[in-house]
Amino acid sequence: MLPTYQDNSVNFVNRLAYLRHDPKRGDVVGIRLSDPGITRPSLLYLKRIIGLPGETVAFVDGQVLINGQVLDEPYKKYDCDWNLPPVTLGPNEYLVVGDNRSMPAKYHVFGKVESDHIVGKAVL
Amino acid sequence: MKIVLRVLSVAALVAVGVWLWTVLFPSPEKVIRQRLATVAKRASFTADESALARLADAESLAGYFSTNVEIDLDVPGRFQLTITGRDEVTQHAAAADSMVSSLSVKFLDVTLTIGPDKQSAVADFTVEARAGGDPDLIVQEMKFTLRKIDGQWLITRVETIRTLSILNLELPRAPSIV
Asked: Does A86 touch chain B (CB under 8 A)?
């Protein structure tokens, strides 16, 4: 999640953030890698939500398109040239991506995630 | 008083018996967890270890896999790799030893599902690996399929799980060693 979050820094995830509402676009969330049955996962990904359930998301020359409309991303520090054909998200799926878009897309860990893998919202 | 002592003695004997039973006949879950921990330990090595010790570890590691094991690795941004058979496991383990100065491997958050026949099992977990000289951690969700063969739990299939699934992006393939 460079440059928003630095390597080896201590970060906190609010597990109660989504008790009363669903995750929102732009939220940075902690994502478990392990089975949802494990209540205290050892490792989490930190990623930003750009696509919400039911939406169609695409990358065109580095710009994110949500249902065909360009997404304004003020948090993005680096331009990129990523291209990704449109992907339609399921009823419980979010599309998450890191802020470090300076690397080629194939080296970046991003994609669809089921809501039960979202542990909470990152606290700055 | 005598009755109380007798009851306590019997309870102590039963407790010792149960403890002995679990030591002598551990559950499949306990055995598999111990074997997975050993696999992670065998896959790890420090910069101080001699080449001979590393080779011995590589050969020992292969012993935890079945002869016809299928390994399908797809680590985003790192490599894609397919290994078939125990001999290839040894060769790739030995090659990995010579490519990095040290390697620390941990299996975290292991979830085990034992088959109804108690002869097969599936282990899901997260691998955390750190290679010497590489500032980045390798973090990958994995799935091992195991079978009890000749009394030993052997790994028959290894596959990576894409936590964030989406893309049909082409990743660089690791060079074939065989």
From this structure: no
